[in-house]
Amino acid sequence: MLREHKKFERLFLFAEVARQLSFTEAANTLGISRGYLSEQIKQLEQELGRPLLIRSTRSVKLTAQGQLVLARMGSIKSSLIDLDRQIRHDHASLSGQIRITAPSLFTQRFLLPICREFNQAYPEVTLSIDCSYKTHDLTQNDYDLALRATNNPPQNMVAKKLYQYRHICCASPHYLKQFGIPTSIEQLQQHQCLTAIEHETWWLNKQPLNIKPQISINDNRMLKTLALQHHGIILVPEYLVDEDIAQGKLVTVLPDVITERFNTYLIHPQLIDQSTRLTTFIQFTKQWIAQHAV
Q: Which keywords does the record carry (predicted)?
C-alpha cells in the first residue's frame, strides 16, 4: 500500500513537470528541490518500465507514454478537485470559505466592496481572492468561482453574464490644453498615445489603428497614472477612469467613437448540489452589480 501511495505521489510530480516542461519551474511551483524532483521522476520511469521524458541540456519533451500519463493525470486531478468541492461545501450552512479568482482591476473597483458588504451580512463566510490576470483552468485549479472579462466564456463551465463595459479614450485637461483636442481618429497619430504592452492596436469604429507609443506598460492603473500626470492619451476600461472623468481629472477624447466592448462573466464549475453559501454569494454579487455598476 505504501508503494502505491508513493507511486501516486510520483505521478502527480511528473504531471507538474510535464505541464511546465521544466524541472526548475515545476520544483519552484511544488516547493521541493530540483534534485528530489528529478530523482522521483527517474524512479517513476523505472517502475513503469518506459521513458516519460526526453531530457536535454536546454529542454524537456514528452514521449508518447509521457503524453498519455499527463492526459490521464489531468483527468484524475479534475475528479479530485470536484470531489473536494462537493465535500467541502456543507450545503445548508452559510459559513466556510469561497475561493475566487478575478482580474486585478475588477477586484479593486467592484469585487472588494462586494466582499466587504457580503461579509457584513454573512460574517461566518470567508472569501479568498486570487487577484491577477492569469486565466486559471477551473478543472485543474480549486477555485469555486471566477470573474472574467471575455466575450467567449468556457463551454465546460456555468457562465453567467454579469456586466458589460467599454474602453474609453481619455487624457488630462492639461495635456489637451497643451497639445490640442483630437477631433478625428486619424489625429490620434499626431498625439502621445500610451498603450498596454502587446495592445498597440486600438479598435475604433470597428477599425484597427496602429499606435506607436513612446511608453507602453503592462498595467492599466499605471497607464492611468501617466495620463493623470499629463503624459498622453490612453485607451482603458471605462470603469477604471469614470470617477476621474466625473471629477474633471481626465477628459473623454472622441466620445462618439465606437470602442471595444467586453462582458464580465461569473464562471463556476457545474456542481450537481451547489452549496448555500456559493449560491448566496452569486446572487448577492449579481444584485450588487445591478445596483452599482449597470
A: DNA-binding, Transcription, Transcription regulation
Give the integer Cα–Cα distance in Å for 26 and 43. 17
Coil/strand/helix, residue 62: strand
pLDDT tens column, 62-89:
888 878 877 777 776 666 666 565 555 5
Could you write out the DSSP letters of every residue in 235-249?
Answer: EEEHHHHHHHHHTTS
pLDDT value of residue 269: 78
Neighbours of 5 (CB within 10 A): 9
Q: How far is the C-alpha of 227 from the C-alpha of 234, rounded, in Å?
A: 7
The letter for the amino acid at 17 is V
- What is the band of 272 on the pLDDT scale with cuts at 50, 70, 90? very low
Q: How far is the C-alpha of 150 from the C-alpha of 161, rounded, in Å?
A: 10
> pLDDT tens digit string along 186-220?
999 899 999 988 788 999 999 999 988 888 888 89
Q: What is the DSSP letter of 154?
A: -
Three cell numbers, residue 173: 485637461
Domains belonging to the chain, first-starting first, are 2-84 (1.10.10.10), 88-162+262-292 (3.40.190.10), 165-261 (3.40.190.10)
How far does the chain reach from its first CA to its final CA, in angstroms? Answer: 57
C-alpha cell at 241: 477612469
